[in-house]
Design brief:
By secondary structure, the chain is α+β, with helices and mostly antiparallel strands. Helix content is 26%, strand content 20%. It contains eight helices and eleven strands. The strands form three sheets. A seven-stranded antiparallel sheet has the order 1-2-3-6-9-10-11.
Length: 304
Amino acid sequence: MAKFRTSHRRKNAAGGTIVRIGFFALIVIVFLFSFKKFSELTGGDPEPVIPDYENLEAFPVDSIFFLPSVKCGEIVTHRYYALSYCEEHELAEWVAYELLGDRLRQPWVRRTNNFREDPKIKTGTSDSGDFRGPEFDRGHLVPAADMAFNDTAMSQTFFMSNISPQRSGFNKGVWRELEELTRDWAKKYDHLYVVSGPVFTSRSTRQLGKNEVSVPDAFYKVLLDLTEPELKGIAFLIPNKTTDVPLEEFATSIDSVESVTGIDFFYNLLDPRLEKALESRFDTDLWPTNPKKYRVRVNSWNRQ
């Protein structure tokens, strides 16, 4: 049974004598409170699970258990995803959201392509003019197709806070393959926690446009499946360039991406022992790729 971290702690009773009726009332109150919290976390199911957040904007940031740590950013919530925006790079350092199989199986709404500044970023974001030219695409961190189940979800993926400079062959090639496989895995496993973001490894960083948007050296995607009985995690760390290398060659542990980025991904979601077990290892057999998709990427997508 998965053990999840909780911010609630039971305090020791103060000293002194408690009369029998008062003691009984205290027990009743504690029982009702515990049952309420248990029901909130489990939805009445005997298996403890973290709830689906139907609208992240309705929750205080510190109560959204699956958000990573912040290194340089300002946390902003939209309805179906959250991000930490790093003014230094004019990019999100991470985006985090739940990817649900039930949502992915719904009919897709029409893609909007309404790229626009994010009104929630106080310091302002990049704009489409920063991405002029054929070398870089306006690459999504939260894919539009992951949020195609309703108009609001789709539209909010086009905030520029969710966009990063991705080389065209990367965005249309290996990153697309990973995005499509991630949706396949979410349909198979029902519920994934997803975190994506940029990686900077060079001493000097290229910048684009009047807003000086930093060009990442690589991108990561971290996936966590907490559906019983087979809990598992995996991460992908991929250079920001066209590649014919099979996707599984970029697979790694969540711990490895944490070492590269300095971000702690699921510290507030998991019991420490479970966190260590899931983040220190990965098994690509549990995250099957698709040879046909790989061939299409190499023979078609990489050449667009």
